[in-house]
User: Fold this.
Amino acid sequence: MKKSIILLAVVFAFSACKGPKSGPLVKEAFNSQAPAQNQSTGSTAHMGQVTSEKVNVVVEPCDGCLTIAKLMETKESVSGKVVKVKGSVTKFNPQIMGKNWVHIQDGSESQGAFDLTITTDLEVTLGQIVTFEGKIALDKDFGYGYSYKILMEEGKIVQ
Assistant:
């Protein structure tokens, strides 16, 4: 009886296999691909992760706002501080780790960095022009290769 159960389990395991590097035990496949560094966001891209692409957009900063270029140039001095940034929504990823993740661009660029990632509880739409206010965090590492050189946390839309 035990042999029948074992044989049945082995047959089931092989019939569920979809070939090499498939199934839950693909750690060697995951580790064999080196992550690519995304210059725009400072995030690290792994298999299947989409990186930000520069969008042709020009958004004038509001009073008291920093451009994305200026934010990138002065990130050490604004770390831990609340700042305002205005831009066009280029990517929206809802409810990841209990937060919505928004990418904005304003047309400015500093040393290849042109995209700001913002965590928020608000929903936005692609192409929407928004002004976010939030605290700047540097070198945030969420594990699994998701790290950000600069991130706006708890962003709120302001006028």
